[in-house]
Design a protein that fits this description.
The structure holds two protein chains of two kinds. By secondary structure, chain A is mainly α. Chain A is built from 19 helices and eight strands. Chain A has helices at 9-14, 16-19, 64-68, 77-81, 88-103, 109-137, 142-162, 184-207, 210-216, 224-229, 234-239, 246-249, 270-293, 313-318, 320-332, 372-378, 380-383, 391-399, 403-407; strands at residues 24-28, 40-46, 49-56, 171-172, 175-176, 339-347, 350-358, 366-370. In chain A, strands 1-2-3 form a three-stranded antiparallel beta sheet. In chain A, strands 6-7-8 form a three-stranded antiparallel beta sheet. In chain A, strand 7 and strand 8 form a beta hairpin. The longest helix of chain B has 12 residues, at 98-109. The relative contact order of chain B is 0.10. Chain B has four helices and nine strands; from the N terminus they run H-E-E-H-E-E-E-E-H-E-H-E-E. In chain B, the strands form three sheets. Chain B has a five-stranded mixed beta sheet with strand order 1-2-5-4-3. A two-stranded parallel ribbon of chain B has the order 6-7. A two-stranded antiparallel ribbon of chain B has the order 8-9. Chain B has helices at residues 3-9, 31-40, 98-109, 149-155, and strands at residues 14-16, 23-26, 46-54, 62-70, 75-82, 87-89, 112-114, 169-170, 182-183. By secondary structure, chain B is of the alpha/beta class. Chain B starts with a helix and ends in a 12-residue tail after the last strand. The chains are: A mainly alpha, B alpha/beta. The interface between A and B is large, with 44 and 36 residues.
């Protein structure tokens, strides 16, 4: 007698538990090109799908907060370069403003305008890198070459201004290290023309590119509520539709004098985050042009900052007063009044915050650094599960984080 | 912010002087309620920062400082909380973003966050015995053995071996100047007779 066995989809569905394979644990990083530094993701995979994502950080932890407690306010400036090392000028400015708030210093207009120019150039440089490597993460190599070309020109301008290409340490508490070089503003203006052309080029290469859209559109959308709950800031928050920008909402360093728009996304997916950064570069150019046009003359450091700056070397050698001041500043540091201050600046990656507790004297009692990248990464366990393994490169690149600031 | 309504609702709250934003000292037991009230009623919808501070001369020794941000009115508020037996209630159920900040405060100061869903270290590794941001911890650090005991037994080294150990690049080990990594396959380096 013939026996038959009916095979149907329903039958297989009923056995789905029995047929399911094991989940696999995969470590992505700490040395992986898509993790942009030393980030490790401990992933649990069901086939190609991510079930769980646990970011492991700390590989670049240098104890910056501990170091800050053991040196004077002036000595810490070079350490701020190494937080978000893709925008050191913006970090310098954020730290300087935080300490100046504590010291109750008011900056002259020229100093503020130069700082705004520095911040916006740092933003352009950071976004150029962010966009270039993001295109590379999603499989488009050429864009990286275009944006890096432009970034190189910026670094030449930084070198001319600060003497260093990468670790600028340009600000001092109460001012800057030096005034603008002759003709520098004109060269920045020329750069502005060039960078807009490059951004248009990137626009044409990526924004309607089928492959790029496939890899970014609708991937890892972050809702307004989720973004706020996780404390995202900067372009990542704005891509989710929250029009919050510290430059507009809590203006510092004279940002209220300049006209610019805040680009805001709709869906909060990877593509929106890309679009927000593209538009931010254009807006930064807009601000830069206004700064160049309205650059005030006058001193580039606060008059009261003479108690913080080292006196000119020639005077130290010949005048008693200056010699004593030099000695006191080097041995005890600038005398900052007791109190506490929290200041956040709108950095390219988000809000970089400094919380400083002072007991008086030249050394901070506690200096807390709130790194926007640390916060951006903390959302990964909420948005990565459910996506495919290949999407992780897209998601990480779209958050545009930097480990120097995350691990501190 | 409506400070009067806030202090009326939480009478144990103490208003502190500050140069930059409204600052309050909040009772340890009330923290979760306070943060929830500030989010739901006063619109402080974003936790900007949460960190620990060590005051060795004070009792209780550790404090936690929260900075909350109202994104529609662009206002900040600062909350100080004193630890009770080195512990503070966790606010990560209200602001999920507090999760990592609290892990960091635990890692750096040893402050416990009661009700935290995942109380692990974050910057240092899990077996690390110290809390480095405490004031008595020396700036130079304290040398501790790394967790991979089996590797240390074989190599006799105090640090974890570089990830490239075993190839495709290998390192001779020993003094640093001799330990430069080389490709495992050295055939391209061999001399070949000229044709």
């Amino acid at each position: 007698m013939k026996t038959t066995k009916e095979i149907s989809l329903g039958d297989i569905a009923a056995r789905s538990e029995e047929l399911r394979g094991e989940n696999m644990t995969l470590n992505m990083g700490p040395s992986h090109p898509a993790t942009h530094g030393v980030l490790r993701l401990s992933l649990e995979l069901d086939g190609d799908k991510v079930v769980k994502c646990d970011p492991v950080i700390g590989y670049l932890h240098r104890g910056d907060e501990k170091i800050a407690e053991n040196m004077t306010y002036n000595q810490f400036v070079p350490y701020t370069d190494r937080l978000d090392y893709l925008a050191p000028l913006a970090n310098n400015v954020a730290y300087a403003i935080a300490v100046e708030k504590l010291a109750g210093l008011k900056m002259p207009e020229r100093c503020e305008a130069i700082r705004v120019a520095c911040c916006e150039m740092a933003r352009i440089s950071s976004h150029l890198l962010g966009l270039g490597v993001y295109a590379m993460d999603t499989g488009a190599w050429t864009v990286f070459m275009y944006t890096f070309n432009e970034r190189e020109k910026l670094y030449t301008l930084f070198e001319e201004l600060t003497g260093a290409r990468f670790t600028t340490s340009y600000t001092r508490i109460g001012g800057l290290t030096r005034d603008l070089p002759e003709g520098w503003l004109q060269r920045v203006e020329n750069f502005c023309d060039g960078v807009l052309k490059t951004i248009d080029e990137v626009d044409r290469l990526l924004t309607r590119n089928g492959i790029f859209l496939e890899r970014t559109e609708g991937i890892a959308p972050i809702s307004k509520e989720l973004a706020l709950a996780y404390g995202l800031t900067g372009p990542n928050l704005r891509a989710s539709g929250v029009p919050f920008d510290l430059r507009k909402d809590k203006p510092y360093s004279g940002y209220e004098k300049y006209e610019f728009d805040i680009p805001v996304g709709v869906k909060g997916d990877c593509f929106d985050r890309y679009l927000v950064r593209m538009e931010e570069v254009r807006q930064s150019v807009r601000i830069l042009r206004q700064v160049i046009k309205t650059m005030p003359s006058g001193p580039w450091y606060a008059e009261e900052a003479k108690k913080i700056f080292l006196p000119p070397k020639a005077k130290v050698m010949t005048k008693m007063e200056e010699l004593i001041q030099n000695f006191m500043l080097v041995t005890e540091g600038p005398q900052i009044p007791a109190g506490e201050v929290y200041f956040e600046a709108e950095n390219p990656k988000g809000a970089l915050g400094f919380y400083i507790v002072s007991n008086g004297g030249g050394v901070p009692y506690r200096l807390r650094i709130r790194g926007p990248s640390f916060v951006s990464l903390s959302i990964l366990p909420a948005i990565v599960p459910g996506n495919f393994l290949t999407d992780i490169a897209s998601i990480l690149g779209s958050l545009d984080f930097v480990m120097g600031e995350c691990d501190r | 912010m409506d400070a009067a309504a806030f202090t009326q609702k939480f009478p144990q709250t103490e208003t502190l002087a500050s140069i930059d934003m409204p600052t309050f000292k909040v009772a340890n037991a009330e923290l979760v309620e306070v943060v929830r009230y500030l989010r739901d009623t006063q619109g402080f919808d974003l936790l900007a920062d949460l960190c620990g501070v060590d005051w060795p001369q004070r009792t209780p020794r550790f404090g936690v400082v929260l900075h909350l941000l109202n994104t529609s009115k662009s206002e900040y508020v600062r909350l100080h909380v004193a630890c009770e037996q080195d512990a503070v209630p966790s606010v990560s159920a209200i602001h999920p973003g507090a999760n990592w900040h609290e892990r960091e405060a635990y890692d750096m100061f040893g402050i416990r966050f009661v009700g935290h869903p995942d109380p692990r270290r974050i910057l240092m590794w899990e077996a690390y015995p110290f809390h480095p941001l405490r004031k008595e911890f020396p700036l130079a650090g304290i040398e501790v053995p790394f967790p991979a005991a089996d590797v240390a037994a074989v190599t006799g080294q105090k640090v974890e071996p570089a990830p490239m150990m075993g190839g495709p690049f290998v390192s001779g080990g020993g003094h640093m100047s001799n330990a430069e990594p080389q490709a495992l396959d050295q055939s391209w380096n061999e001399e070949k007779p000229k044709s």
